[in-house]
Design a protein that fits this description.
Strand 31 and strand 32 form a beta hairpin. A 7-stranded parallel β-sheet has the order 14-15-13-16-17-12-18, sandwiched between helices. By secondary structure, the chain is of the alpha/beta class. Helix 1 crosses helix 2, helix 10 runs parallel beside helix 11 and helix 20 packs parallel to helix 21. It is built from 25 helices and 33 strands. It folds into 6 domains: about 100 residues, 3-Layer(aba) Sandwich (GIY-YIG endonuclease); about 60 residues, no CATH class; about 70 residues; about 170 residues, P-loop containing nucleotide triphosphate hydrolases (Rossmann fold), CATH 3.40.50; about 180 residues, Rossmann fold, CATH 3.40.50.300; about 90 residues, Alpha-Beta Plaits, CATH 3.30.70. The chain binds adenosine-5'-triphosphate and zinc ion (2 copies). One zinc ion binds next to loops.
């Protein structure tokens, strides 16, 4: 028997499977999806088995050295998905597989076999191995020449257990536990304990109803059962001590109050019924558009409950920044231990622990950020993507996948629904729903039956005319003061991205646009130039406004820090929490600050993007946006869409309880359609206008896009390569496909590497992946040897 193995060397030159012989002692364990150690040149290298075959065309086939897993770490589904992923995103096969696995699996896990039964009950071969010891390392077992197939069977039968430890944090990984022993009936046990040992009888009770070993510590703390009682039972041969793996569950220490399903509103019921219908019928992609506070999460919870009742599993994706304790709590309090949480704030060991609970089938719900979409479930019944419009679902590094695409592929495989939810769906998803590709579901009312908060728009040009140069308008200040008097809370949102990269007239709001691309030109300080990031157009920045002649034309910036100072000056009695990259860089700081705010230890929460989402605090009655048009000016065709989404999200934070909320939006441009429609909560009208714009400029959803970026230290190499790649594509593309560039990337040099980009807009290409592959393939060698880098980003979300 032979195994085809992808080796863990990230280079284009070895991006193909290699054949290895399966030695007899490893048959039965080596199977598709397990990791192995194989000789490669002079070294031993880890690899992943993708298939097993009877024959091999290779003449000198080397044997597999070791097998690292008793169970495949990649299911047949994920093995297949990984192949599509590598092909579609143009990454190495190994890169695709690594994206699906926790980082700890890259060599840091130590496995030990532990015997659960007396030697005599083991097959003779294993009895020899475990002679006089209880534990044998997985590797030693292989070195001894034991047939690993037998080991695996013994594990499957429960004769042996496998304990795994992530090497660098192995200290203190196990705790002492107690479990029942021997095959006695309940009556026999009671008899053996005797009438007088009250505590021991209590302990028996606890152990009989518990499926897993009980921690000695928990018995003492929660049940008042002392060590003496435990030892008493052990002495009578009714129980035994076992080591219990300590799970580094970051939420484990917290107690979650159990929550029960709420009685749904009419709208919620309707949506839930539709989801269940699809669930019964098979796969479909559903888009749930529900205004903020309409109870989408409650619908998710009840849809999941239904899936669990049928014995299936569910994945819930949430954007990284909304994966707050508040969010996690809602799932844990409903489904308790059945929930695993995967997010980037966990250590490698913690992530591995959570992943393993999924892998072993100990949980049936996963709540996590983007990569949780690869959770190794085998009975998926539902995949939910909350805030589906979020850009963070796209990975900006290889493999450049979008979680939505992966979710839909998995949904097809498992024949289960994929539910996309948002108050402001992406234009792309919404267009698909309108076309009937997805099924559209809607929640149009807030659960509390309250109207959406009233939105006041403040024209900052007027403020300037009246001599107010502060970043806070008079209206904003008045509203903030009212909240202070009433003891209510406010959130103030300031978008920092995009500041000082565009030029604007402070008198009339004019900004420079590219004549060819309908996006803002970017200001380049060094040469005092305005440039277009898409097509390369450039011009000298004007000294006076071309529209109104004012000299107040410049780039400017207002950071959160500056606003905080201003607030301190104007409202000295206000307690302020500032949340931005600076104040939240420490692990756990984000959560701690939110908790403080939730406990009403501050009046104003001032922050960037990260406060716009998911806050559900009843005492917030004012949401303010300081520079609504800042995001609008970012040179990206999605600028208007992102602005609309953000304003809607921010507005959604106010008035979630009994008291009505209010929203104040400050802007230099008060006429832009995305602001006006956000002010009226008119998603439909916004989409109409935006779709016209997209159509005119031929942006998604009317076309698909690809961004190719070439980078190297040598500028001439970059230009030459970019031109060659473009030429190759030009030769083979369909006539209807547009190729823009090459032009220097918006950030033309990063870390001494020059960057050039090409943009492709296409509608009908029979095989875009192949076209790109062919254009890039000639550089594979240079790419691995010579530091040349060609990034191919399909359906890009960012254009820097
Ligand atoms: N049927 C219901 N009955 C009573 N309260 C409900 C019901 N459904 C949801 N809620 C409550 O209403 C509030 C808002 O619901 P939820 O957070 O699920 O809305 P959402 O649409 O996910 O909000 P957002 O998109 O703004 O985060 C929550 O506090 C939730 O507990
Ligand atoms: Zn002007
Ligand atoms: Zn342009």
């Amino acid at each position: 028997m032979y195994a085809r193995v992808y080796i863990d060397v990230l280079s284009g030159s070895v991006d193909r499977p290699f054949d290895y012989r399966i030695p007899p002692e490893l048959t039965g364990v080596v199977q598709p999806g397990v990791r192995v150690q194989v000789p490669f040149g002079p070294r031993q290298i880890t690899g992943i088995v993708i298939s097993c075959t009877e024959e091999s065309d290779v003449t000198k086939v080397k044997p597999i050295h070791q097998v690292l897993d008793e169970q495949p770490v990649l299911t047949p589904e994920l093995l297949m998905l990984g192949q599509t992923l590598a092909r579609e995103t143009l990454c190495l096969q190994m890169t695709a597989y690594q994206a699906m696995l926790p980082a700890a699996l890259r060599g840091k896990v130590v496995k030990t076999l532990e015997r659960n039964v007396p030697l005599a009950e083991l097959p003779p071969e294993l009895a020899a191995l475990f002679q006089s010891r209880r534990r044998v390392s997985w590797i030693d077992a292989q070195k001894s020449g034991t047939a690993m197939g037998v080991v695996r069977e013994a594990v499957d039968q429960g004769l042996l257990t496998i304990e795994e430890v992530v090497k660098d944090q192995s200290a203190g990984r196990t705790l002492q536990g107690v479990q029942l022993r021997g095959s006695y009936s309940a009556e026999e046990r009671l008899e053996l304990v005797g009438n007088r040992a009250v505590k021991q009888k209590e302990l028996l009770d606890v152990l009989e109803t518990s499926e897993r070993p009980m921690l000695v510590k928990t018995l003492a703390e929660d049940y008042g059962i002392s060590n003496a009682a435990v030892n008493g039972l052990i002495d009578k041969g009714l129980a035994e001590k076992v080591d219990v793996e300590k799970r580094r569950d970051p939420y484990g220490a917290r107690d979650f109050e159990t929550s029960t399903p709420l009685a749904l509103t009419k709208e919620q019921t309707h949506v839930l019924t539709s989801i269940k219908k699809v669930q019964a019928a098979g796969h479909d992609t559903l888009l749930l558009q529900g205004v903020t506070g309409s109870g989408k999460t409650e619908v998710y919870l009840q849809a999941i409950e239904d899936v669990l009742n049928q014995g299936s599993e569910a994945i819930v994706l949430v954007p990284e920044i909304s994966l707050t304790p508040q969010m996690v709590e809602r799932f844990k309090s409903r489904f308790g231990e059945a929930v695993a949480v995967l997010h980037s704030a966990l250590s490698a060991g913690e992530k591995y622990d959570e992943w393993r609970r999924i892998h072993r089938g100990e949980v049936s719900v996963v709540v996590g950020a983007r990569s949780a979409v690869f959770a190794p479930f085998t009975k998926l019944g539902l995949i939910i993507i909350d805030e589906e419009h979020e850009g963070s679902y796209k990975q900006e590094d290889q493999p450049r996948y979008h979680a939505r695409d992966i979710a839909i592929q998995r949904g097809e495989y498992h024949n289960c629904p994929v539910l996309l939810g948002s108050a402001t769906p992406s234009i792309e998803s919404y267009a698909r729903a309108r076309k009937g590709v997805y099924t559209l579901l809607q929640l149009t009312e807030r659960v509390n039956q309250k109207a959406m908060p009233e939105v006041k728009m403040v024209d900052m040009r007027e403020e300037l005319k009246e001599g107010n140069r502060s970043p806070l308008s008079t209206v904003m200040l008045e509203e903030l003061e009212k909240r202070l008097e009433r003891g209510e809370q406010s959130v103030l949102f300031l978008n920092r991205r995009g500041f000082s990269t565009f030029i604007m007239c402070r008198s009339c709001g004019f900004t420079s646009q590219c004549p060819h691309c309908e996006i803002s030109l970017t200001y380049h300080k060094r040469h005092h130039q305005l440039k277009c990031h898409y097509c390369g157009f450039e011009e000298t920045a004007p000294a006076a406004c071309p529209e109104c002649g004012s000299e107040h034309i410049r780039f400017f910036g207002t950071g959160t820090q500056k606003v905080e100072q201003e607030l301190n000056r104007l409202l000295p009695e206000a307690r302020i929490i500032r949340m931005d990259v600076d104040t939240t860089s420490r692990k756990g700081a984000h959560e701690a600050l939110l908790q403080q705010f939730g406990e009403q230890k501050a009046d104003i929460l001032l922050g960037t993007q990260m406060i716009a989402k998911g806050l559900d605090f009843p005492n917030i009655t004012l949401a303010g946006v300081l520079a609504a048009d800042a995001l609008l000016k970012i040179p990206d065709f999605r600028a208007a869409e992102r602005t609309f989404q953000l304003l809607t999200q921010v507005s959604g934070r106010a008035g979630r309880d009994e008291r009505a909320g209010e929203v104040v939006i400050q802007s230099y441009d008060t006429e832009h359609y995305s602001l006006l429609h956000a002010q009226n909560y008119d998603f439909e009208r916004f989409v109409q206008t935006e779709m016209q714009e997209r159509k005119r400029a031929q942006y998604p959803p009317y076309t698909y896009m690809v961004l190719i970026t070439v980078s190297h230290q040598d500028l001439t190499r970059v230009i030459k390569t970019a031109n060659e790649v473009a030429h190759k594509i030009e030769q083979h593309k369909q006539p209807s496909t547009a190729l823009l560039g090459p032009v220097p990337s918006p950030i033309a040099r990063i870390k001494d590497r020059y960057r050039y980009q090409c943009m492709i807009k296409y509608k009908d290409e029979p095989d875009m992946a192949l076209l790109l592959q062919q254009a890039v393939a000639p550089y594979m060698k240079e790419m691995s040897k010579d530091d040349l880098y060609i990034a191919v980003d399909r359906h890009p979300q960012m254009f820097m």
